Amino acid sequence: MAITISGSGITSANIADGTIVNADINSSAAIDGSKLTGAGKVLQVVQGTDTTTVYNATTTYEDTGLTATITPSSTSSKILVITTSPSVYKSSTTASSSVSLRILRAATAIQYSALISYNNASHQQMSAVSMSVLDSPATTSATTYKTQFACSDTNGAHSNLQGNLATIILMEIAG
Fold first, then answer.
1. Is 26 part of any domain?
2. C-alpha dist (Å) from residue 1 to 7, 22, 139
């Protein structure tokens, strides 16, 4: 096969499909992100962290302190929310006691999860917690996501009792 060299450089008109393979491409070659199109492309990633310990002894949801804000580039984008909280501690003297966690977009709950559930009294338990949800906020305005927790009784629970690093990751996915 011949490659034609003209006055303005080398042309690809005579290169057959499949002739250039991945091994032929320099490992340091950069691909312009604007060339990657279509649904599913990760457009941006934002992370929030927190080490605060929060105590809640009510059935009302309270903020854990874990929050992050992202500004979607398109109303068709989806936001993948991934949270990890290193510990939720619950002490109970009541049968059928539990702690629930939820993810909110602004003031709207978009994901719920029961963390610790008891079938009998006099138990204490610490659990690591992670949650994820794919949200469709349909906006290009700055959007805040956060986590909250609540107890099924007044014995109370601690979020992040040991003060470890809790994280929330927001990934904008092209729609």
1. no
2. 20, 20, 52
Residue 167 domain boundaries: 37-173
Residue 147: partners with Cβ closer than 8 Å, 6 or more residues away: 63, 64, 66, 67, 83, 85, 101, 102, 103, 104, 131, 168
Is pLDDT larger for residue 146 or for residue 94? 146
* Phi, psi dihedral angles at 146 (to 5 degrees): -155, 170
Nearest-angstrom CA–CA distance, 82 and 138: 19
Q: Where are the beta strands (DSSP E) in the chain?
A: 5-6, 9-10, 42-50, 54-56, 62-70, 78-92, 98-105, 108-117, 123-135, 143-151, 157-159, 166-173
Q: Is residue 90 part of a domain?
A: yes
The CATH number assigned to the domain holding 73 equals: 2.60.120.1340
For 122-134, the pLDDT digits (tens) are 666 777 788 999 9
Tally the domains of the chain.
Answer: 1
Q: Is 23 part of any domain? A: no
Residue 6, domain member (yes or no): no
The answer to whether residues 59 and 98 touch, using CB atoms and an 8 Å cutoff, is no
Cut 0.85: pTM above it: no
